[in-house]
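Supplementary notes for students who missed Thursday's class. We covered one full example, reproduced here. Read the sequence, then the structure, then the short commentary at the end.
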Amino acid sequence: MRPCWPVLECVVDRESLHSGSAQRTVREVYRSIGINEAVFSNRNENKLLCLLDDVLTSGTSFSAARNKLLERFPGKRVSGIFWTKAEQPDTDDW
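Structure (token representation):
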């Protein structure tokens, strides 16, 4: 098991995408996040950075987070893992 740290932090509150009507842009999300520098103060920066996100819809949040990390760590590899809750079908419907 690999360690996981909260490397990004919200610096400007924003409305959740599912409760608002307007689409967010990568630039808007990018401006609302910052890097938690305390996490990197004693970590090896030569490793892969992998972002965990709860769902991938448009990719806006991932793109903004990836851009923010690449700005801070140029040339590093940033990947993403996305998960969502799946509803199980009712077996009576089969």
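Commentary. The radius of gyration is 16 Å. The chain has a mean pLDDT of 80. If anything here is unclear, bring it to office hours.
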